[in-house]
Amino acid sequence: MKTIKKLLIAMIPGFFFSVCVAQDLTVCTSSSYSIPSVTPAGSAATYVWMENGVEIAGAADVSYINTAGKTTAGTYIYTRMAKMPNCNWQASNSFILCVVGMDSAPAITLPANKCSGEDFVFTVPPVAGTKYEWDGGGVAKDNTYTYSSATAGAKTVTVRAVASLGGSNCTSSYSGATVTVYATPTIIVQPEAKQGVCPDNTVDLSILASDATAYQWLKNGVAVTEGSGYDRADYTTAELNSEATYAVIVGNAGACSVTSDEAVVTMKQSGCCNMPGTTGLFTTFNPCAISSMGSEWMLKDDRESDNIQTYKVKLLADGRYWMVQDLKFGKGCDKITFAGSRADKTGIVAAGYYGDCLKNTNGDYLYDWAATLNQSKAHHGGSYRGCTGVGASANNCQGICPDGWHVPTSNEFDQANNIFKGAYNCKNADCWNLTKNWEASFAGLATATGKVNNIGTQGQYWSSSSNSNSNASVMYISSGSVLNPKGIANRNSGLAVRCVRNY
After folding, report:
1. H or E stretch covering 181
2. Main-chain phi, psi angles of 61, to 5 degrees
3. What does each C-alpha distance from 206 to 194, 211, 247, 257, 265 come to in angstroms?
4. CA dihedral 279, 283, 284, 289 (to 10 degrees)
5. Beta-strand relationship, 357-359 and 365-367
6. How far is the first Cα of the chain from the last one, in angstroms, to the nearest whole number?
7. pTM over 0.90, yes/no
8. DSSP conformational letter for 115
9. What is the rounded distance in angstroms from the CA atom of residue 164 to the CA atom of residue 466?
């Protein structure tokens, strides 16, 4: 019998094909079926059924019935073997059964994107001769299921395969899948362009967006890491000196993002106090360069073509603009000796100016009081008292200061010192120097005979106010012990000069 079975298997037409060829019966997977009975071989006959050449256990009747059906689609060939006592086994004609259907539920491929506003597509592998039944609220087309411009929220789909062959429709079990669609951020307010920004200034940019938790600002298309808040909705750029274009990528936890419109920041080409490579003239002082306490501006004094000087100016706590470096005006100061006041002569400090001055060994300029106020001999001594009050601008205390500036009055020194005490928590002369706002150079004091004392340890500064026929009020600053900032000096002495801007 074994030899006969092997021979029959080899002779069965189409046994090795995986598709149904010339089938006698087509059924779906898991459907019952029966193989029609053939002519009985006799009451004493013995029967054996074979499936694809393999004996089916327990199949010993004239007919063969499988109530459970086959779970795997394919071609099955059945043959009945019959044998009478003392006879050889005889094989019936082969019966071809085609089992149609999916061996398992179709595998769903999830969408690559998970953001609202985009097409959201589920797919299953296509199989020839098979169609798919989808459910879930989208649009089905063959092996794809699409949510066009998907809205945010959970999307659940189910699908089963329906195989058709030989007039039979066979279905698989259902597959299901659920995916969350994240809301793509929506930009409500775009970043605004900024026109005419002065060099070395920062720019504030902002954006308003819904469903946003992440931000990345771009400068000229490249992610930035400088400035403040480049990963937040409100961004302050680093200092700018050239035109730039800014945008921001807005995202969220679902990796959904959108890029804002571009905002162009343009720079001023003129009209700024801090244009690169430029300095302002004293006579055209522009306070926009100094707008916060302690901020500074370098100013140029070009009244003498052969002695052009540049000075640092600061806005101090008293609300005034002060020169914080000693004045160096007057080519006539460049001499060896200092003979005291020569207020009856002109051209000593500079052309058209009265008084006398000298340079100390550190190169600092020291002036007598006549030179400081640019007064003739008639005003140098006697009852002339100079200027008083605060914010002097209309009286004659400009002295050798540039136009728009004047020699501080004694009252202005006093008021500033009192304000500095409260603003900087300091005392007396410390308030001018230790706050680093005054930047004292400690030029010392020149006597009427030309001897210079206390260079590097003490600074004395003329006021435009006089308290007697021979003395004028001064401010003292020391690098060591605290001195009373208010004092007097002989008008023939040589002291440093600083200027304060007119109100």
Report:
1. strand 175-181
2. -100, 175
3. 12, 16, 10, 17, 13
4. 60
5. antiparallel
6. 127
7. no
8. B
9. 117
Environment class of 250 (CB within 10 Å of its CB; exposed 0-12, middle 13-18, buried 19+): buried
Determine the 3-state secondary structure of 377 from DSSP. helix
Would you say 329 and 304 are in contact if contact means Cβ atoms under 8 Å apart?
Answer: yes
Instruction: Please identify which residue in the block is written with the tokens 């590097």.
Output: 456
**Is the CB of residue 320 less than 8 Å from the CB of residue 311?**
no
Instruction: Choose among 129, 161, 128, 123: nearest CA to 145.
Output: 123
Strands in 139-141's sheet, in edge-to-edge order, are 120-123, 144-147, 139-141
Q: What are the backbone dihedrals phi and psi of residue 370, each rounded to the nearest 5 degrees, phi first?
A: -65, -45
Instruction: Give the chain's length.
Output: 503
Residue stretches of the chain with pLDDT short of 70: 1-22, 38, 102-103, 165-168, 270-296, 335-344, 377-382, 391-396, 428-430, 433-436, 480-484
Domains of the chain: 2-100 (2.60.40.10), 120-181 (no CATH), 186-267 (2.60.40.10), 280-501 (no CATH)
Q: Of 187, 42, 66, 179, which is closest to residue 123 (Cα–Cα)?
A: 179
Nearest-angstrom CA–CA distance, 158 and 223: 42
CA-nearest of 166, 161, 12 to 81 is 12
Give the gyration radius of the chain's Cα atoms: 52
| CA distances for 247 relative to 191, 236, 465, 486, angstroms | 7, 13, 59, 58
